[in-house]
Design brief:
Blueprint (H helix, E strand, L loop, with lengths): L11 E6 L4 H14 L4 E4 L3 H4 L20 H18 L5 E6 L2 E2 L4 H11 L6 E3 L10 E5 L2 E4 L1 E3 L2 H4 L11 H5 L8 E3 L7 E5 H10 L7 H9 L5 E4 L5 E2 L7
Parallel strand pairs: 1-2, 1-3, 5-11
Antiparallel strand pairs: 3-10, 4-12, 5-10, 6-7, 7-11, 8-9
Length: about 250
């Protein structure tokens, strides 16, 4: 079974997995088959296996600690960047990106199709799986589609600890979209299931050139201020074996 967008084209679905975790891969494959999710698995980046770590600090929560994210978060960040690069080379207007613990309910297909139909035309990302949205301000758009509220922030917070907004390319220097953000979305967090639209891919790739924070927080700090991001609430997809905040 495939689900379609409003133009009646199948929405291509990709799932990040690792060859080093065959149990997770097998569980995901069985679950997606049971739920009728037509998905292509893509091997992501196992940063520990590759010997990769970031030396850029994440100190938003605890300034001055010199904290750096671990190999797991480094690899997941790189894996999502890999997915965006792959999608950018495919002639389609939207893609469903999954992590291999994404869990679908029985009624996922009509809910997802309706959410796509209800999302505004300017949508760049639609989170069909999310977490930590329940206590945040929100704007109801239509149906189950919401925009999680934004909060003004200072430039130093957006640029905390080694993640300064430093234009490193002519595109960033010359394009207003890549100026330092003056406000930031509260969420959503978690990246186990989201739809990304083609028009967002270039911005995602250009705003995520620095590995410094877990991918969901890196998106909040660097990418969301430049994108139209919407969230389906209650979420459609959960995470297998995990209790995550709504």
């Amino acid at each position: 079974m495939v689900f379609r967008n409003t133009a009646e084209r199948p929405v291509k679905t990709f799932c990040i997995t690792l060859p080093e975790t065959p149990g997770r891969h097998a569980a995901a494959e069985a679950h997606f088959k049971e739920r009728g999710v037509d998905v292509r698995f893509i091997y992501g980046i196992n940063a520990k296996k590759f010997g990769l770590l970031t030396h850029h600090f994440y100190e938003v929560d605890h300034p001055g600690t010199g904290y750096t994210i671990n190999a797991k978060h480094t690899g997941l960040n790189l894996s999502h960047q890999l997915m965006w690069s792959i999608c950018k080379e495919i002639d389609d207007d939207k893609f469903l990106i999954l992590e291999d613990d994404a869990e679908f309910p029985v009624d996922w297909k009509p809910r997802m199709e309706q959410a796509i139909a209800d999302a505004p035309a300017e949508t760049d990302m639609l989170f069909v799986g999310s977490c930590n949205c329940g206590d945040k301000p929100r704007e109801h758009i239509k149906g189950d589609v919401f925009r999680i509220g934004k909060q003004p922030i200072s430039f130093p917070m957006a640029c905390a600890a080694g993640c300064e907004w430093l234009p490193t390319s002519k595109v960033e220097r010359d394009t207003p979209h890549y100026a330092a953000p003056t406000e930031i979305a509260f969420g959503p967090t978690c990246t186990h299931a989201y739809i990304v639209y083609r028009k967002a891919l270039e911005k995602l790739l250009l705003t995520q050139r620095d590995i410094w924070a877990p991918i969901d927080l890196a998106l909040i700090f660097r990418s969301f201020p430049h994108l139209n991001v919407y969230t389906v609430l209650p979420r459609i997809c959960g995470q297998r074996g995990q209790e995550i905040a709504p």
